[in-house]
Each structure stands twice: as C-alpha cells, then as structure tokens.
C-alpha cells in the first residue's frame, strides 16, 4: 500500500512538472554591500519595491546544508533545511540542482524545489545517509517587486554550544540576492531581473556567480 502511494506521488509530481505548474527553477543574481552602506540600499529598495509605505519584512533563519553522495552520479544531491529562529513556523526543505551558467542568460539558473516539513526532517535525512556540509544563520530584510524577491542579509557562523546561535559575524558586509522561482520555459524573467539590478547600481553590483571557481556551491 505504501509503495503504491509513493508511486502515485511520483507520477503526480512528474505530471505537474511537465505541465509547468510547479515553480522548479530559480533565477538568481547575487552581490554584497558593506555594512556602512547598507542603509542607503535599504532606502533605495523601499522606493523601488512594492508596499513602499510599509516597513520591509524581516527574517532570522538557521540554514543547514547537506549533501547525499550517489554512486551513479558525480555530483552530490544538494539539500537545505531552513527554520526560523524568531517565530514558530514549519521547517523548509529545499532541493537545489547544479547551476546552469549559460552565457546567453543574464542570470544564473538552477533547479529548485521547496516543501514545508516537520521538525524531524534532519533526523530523517541523516538516516537516509545525508552528510552535513555546513550551517549558518542569516538575518535581514525581504523586499518584493512583482514576482521578484530581494533579500539583504547578514551571514553569521554557527558557533559552539556555549555561545548564542548567530553571534559570530562572518564578514563586514551584507549578502544581497535577487531571485525568482518559476516553472520551466519562462526565460524572460532573466531580462526583468537584469533591468531591476541596473537600478541598484552603483550601490551594489548583482551578477551571476560561478561557484565552481570558488570551489563549491552556495
């Protein structure tokens, strides 16, 4: 009975992906800005994004990054588990595929699927054989412009058990990400993002990052 349910779920997921119902691609641009200039960027984003009169949404998350080595594939399966540290909300499991660095595209494109899950997800993934690669805390602001999402976040390391989570700052700058989740076949999104990114210059230079040159994936 359980095997039948799993098979049916896979068929439903496959059908949804083929019908372009599920947003399974992430278009991404990234950059950074010094702490001393981040207030200017926040002000610029408040003027450019939706809900100009409202304060930007804030977040404070712990993100755990795992990988699962597969004998038949050279690249590991990359998984993320995220949970909010400032509110009682479901855990989020995210699959991230290998980035496609097509020079003809203005953004990095990678497969991405997000699902809500329970607090036992880390135990479940560990039992499956997933290995912890790294974890970090991100705290900052979320802005939205139509279907685009812009995050401005301070990245902090996860220290030893005797210290408070997220107390160790990694750098003197903020990570800025411009992203859109969409189904396959919506390549025009990249041009929209490029035009928006141009409006943030010279405060921040958003670009597609080749993580292979950096020795790993984000």
Automatic annotation (TrEMBL):
InterPro entries noted in UniProt: Mediator_Med18
Transmembrane parts of this sequence: none
GO BP: any one term: regulation of transcription by RNA polymerase II
Entry's Gene Ontology molecular function annotations: transcription coregulator activity
GO cellular component: core mediator complex; mediator complex
The entry's keywords: Activator, Nucleus, Transcription, Transcription regulation
Subcellular location, record wording: Nucleus
Source taxon at top rank: Eukaryota
Family classification: Belongs to the Mediator complex subunit 18 family.
Function: Component of the Mediator complex, a coactivator involved in the regulated transcription of nearly all RNA polymerase II-dependent genes. Mediator functions as a bridge to convey information from gene-specific regulatory proteins to the basal RNA polymerase II transcription machinery. Mediator is recruited to promoters by direct interactions with regulatory proteins and serves as a scaffold for the assembly of a functional preinitiation complex with RNA polymerase II and the general transcription factors.
Subunit details: Component of the Mediator complex.
Protein name in the entry: Mediator of RNA polymerase II transcription subunit 18
Taxonomic source organism: Bactrocera dorsalis
